[in-house]
Automatic annotation (TrEMBL):
Annotated TM spans: 20-36, 79-97, 104-122, 142-168
PANTHER family: LIPOPROTEIN SIGNAL PEPTIDASE
Record's catalysed reaction(s): Release of signal peptides from bacterial membrane prolipoproteins. Hydrolyzes -Xaa-Yaa-Zaa-|-(S,diacylglyceryl)Cys-, in which Xaa is hydrophobic (preferably Leu), and Yaa (Ala or Ser) and Zaa (Gly or Ala) have small, neutral side chains
Biological source species: Neomicrococcus aestuarii
Domain of life where this protein originates: Bacteria
Protein name: Lipoprotein signal peptidase
Pfam annotation, one family: Peptidase_A8
Top EC class for this record: hydrolase
Length: 195
C-alpha cells in the first residue's frame, strides 16, 4: 500500500480560461448536443414509421425507429418514472458541478453529459404516453449492439471522458492529484513546524 500523501496542484492550461468562459463552453456544447439529439429525433418521427429499418452501411449500421420506455437494451421498461427521476437528478448535479469548473477537459465532458441527459430527459417528460413516463426515441442500430440515439452517444462518450479524468487525478476545479515522495512530505512538514 502506498502511504505517500496526495496533494493537489493547479492545472496550468486552465489558468488561461476563466471559470465563466469554461462554463460558457460547457453550456455551448450542451446546447449543440441537445439540438442534435432533438433534431434527429424529430427527423426520425417525421420520416419513418415505428419499427421501420433503413440500411445505412449494411449490415453494420441501420436506422431502426423504436420507442424505448426503459434504459439501455430496453432494461427496466416498467420503471420509466425511475429513469426520469435519475436523469433529472444527474442534470441538476451536473449544473452544480459547473460552478466549480477550472478545467477545459472537464468543461467538455460535463457539457456533453448535460446535453445528452437533457435530450433524453426531454423525451421522458414530454413524449407519449404521459408526462414523466415518456418513451425515448432510439434509431441508431449497430449490429450486435443496442439501438440508441445521439443523446446516448454524448452520455457514453462523456462518461468515458470523466472516468479518464478521474483516473489521471484531474479534478473539476482544475487541480491535479500529485503523489508527493515520502521524504518531500516530511521535509515540508518540518519546514512548517520551524516556520
Amino acid at each position: 500500500m502506498n502511504d505517500d500523501p496526495v496533494v493537489t496542484a493547479p492545472e496550468e492550461p486552465a489558468k488561461k480560461h476563466s471559470r465563466g468562459r469554461l462554463v460558457a463552453m460547457a453550456l455551448s456544447l450542451a446546447i449543440i448536443a441537445y439540438a442534435a439529439d432533438q433534431l434527429t429525433k424529430w427527423w426520425v418521427e417525421n420520416n419513418m414509421y415505428e419499427g421501420q429499418v433503413i440500411p445505412v452501411i449494411p449490415p453494420v449500421l441501420n436506422w431502426y425507429f423504436i420507442r424505448n420506455p426503459g434504459a439501455a437494451f430496453s432494461i427496466g421498461t416498467e420503471f420509466t418514472w425511475v429513469f426520469s427521476l435519475l436523469m433529472a437528478a444527474v442534470f441538476i448535479f451536473v449544473l452544480f458541478l459547473l460552478r466549480k469548473l477550472g478545467s477545459l477537459w472537464w468543461a467538455v465532458a460535463l457539457g456533453g453529459l448535460l446535453g445528452g441527459v437533457a435530450g433524453n430527459l426531454t423525451d421522458r417528460l414530454f413524449r407519449p404516453p404521459a408526462f414523466f413516463h415518456g418513451h425515448v426515441v432510439d434509431f441508431i442500430s449497430v449490429s450486435n449492439f443496442a439501438i440508441f440515439n445521439i443523446a446516448d452517444s454524448f452520455i457514453v462518450c462523456s462518461m468515458i471522458g470523466i472516468c479518464l479524468l478521474m483516473f489521471v487525478g484531474r479534478r473539476v476545479d482544475g487541480t491535479k492529484d500529485v503523489v508527493a515522495p515520502k521524504g518531500a512530505a516530511e521535509d515540508a512538514s518540518s519546514e512548517s513546524e520551524r516556520g
